[in-house]
Design a protein that fits this description.
It is a single chain. The protein is built from two helices and eight strands. By secondary structure, it is of the alpha/beta class. The strands form two sheets. A four-stranded mixed sheet has the order 1-3-6-5, with no helix packed on it. The chain starts with 7 loop residues before the first helix and ends with a strand. About 14% of the residues have low confidence.
Length: 148
């Protein structure tokens, strides 16, 4: 058996195959960075870092999350995407909920806020229509972001 050092063409071919295999295993999902959960309302990061805000979301049940005014200062952070993850056991079920990640990138030094609002079953527009339990799910979360 010849050593790879004696057959450079084989070594190059092997590295091309390995590189192609590693690329194929990559994910199309954006980098979520540091994930803020429900009880976290602030984050401090460096320019260029990413972070995401995670909220439980089930549109078929009436959850309707949005980033609302005042919008975050684009000089400090920008929204670069969102991902909705379903638990494995829910992927085959209609109307299943999961975690929605709002993903942001830190652009420049400063402090700004991000406000997410869950207009549960449109109760924000028609507050007298829902019961007390439903009204508890109309939520406004404000997050403070500091970029150094």
């Amino acid at each position: 058996m010849k050593a790879l050092t004696k057959t450079p063409l084989r070594a190059v071919a092997l590295s091309v195959v390995l590189a192609a295999g590693l690329t194929a295993c990559g994910s199309d999902e954006p980098d979520r960075g540091r994930v803020l959960r429900t009880d976290e309302r602030s984050v401090s990061l460096a320019v260029g870092q990413r972070f995401s805000i995670a909220v439980w979301d089930n549109a078929s049940d009436g959850d309707y999350w949005n980033i609302v005014d005042p919008k975050p200062d684009a000089a400090v952070v920008t929204n670069v995407g969102e991902v909705h993850d379903l638990p494995e056991e829910s992927k085959a079920a209609d109307g299943a909920g999961g975690t929605r990640y709002y993903i942001f990138k830190a652009n420049g030094s400063g402090t700004t806020t991000i406000t997410l609002f869950n207009c549960y079953r449109t109760l924000c527009n028609h507050p007298k229509l829902g019961d007390d339990e439903s009204r508890k799910r109309v939520v406004r979360n404000t997050y403070t972001v500091t970029v150094r």
